[in-house]
Amino acid sequence: MKIKSVLVFGCGGQAKVTLDILEKCKCEIVGIVDIMDNATVQKEFMSYEILGTHGELPQIGIKCGILAIGDSYIRAKVMKKIVTLVPDFEFINAIHPSVQIASNAEIGIGNTIMAGVSINSS
Per-residue pLDDT tens for 67-90? Predict the structure, then answer.
């Protein structure tokens, strides 16, 4: 993965795993975006600053990141909101360096692929 300045959306278990992968890939993690619409009390998560909520994304100004949300329904809802607020937002993949990917495998965008995974040909 090319080094990028990224935002991570979420403050839970999935975010912990995703942050670990991004750190191993040498991404510049700008900060965390809380997925809750109400103001966050927490100021940081895993030593990264919480920059605001996803509703404040246009003011944050970063247009690249990953959804680190385990619940599929909530993840889809947040993604729709992000695309509405910032139509040119770039979703990245977080792929652990130990992942084995077949040369002809196709991987979409916004994926978190954890340590030890093998992705074979289809």
Answer: 999 999 999 999 999 999 999 999
First CA to last CA distance, the chain: 23
Task: Decide: helix, strand or coil at residue 92.
Answer: coil
Beta bridge partners of 31: 7
Token pair, residue 12, equals 């839970």
Calculate the average pLDDT of the chain: 90
Report pTM: 0.89
CA distances from residue 5 to 1, 31, 69, 119 in whole angstroms, order as listed: 12, 9, 19, 26
Cα 29 to Cα 48: distance, rounded to the nearest angstrom: 8
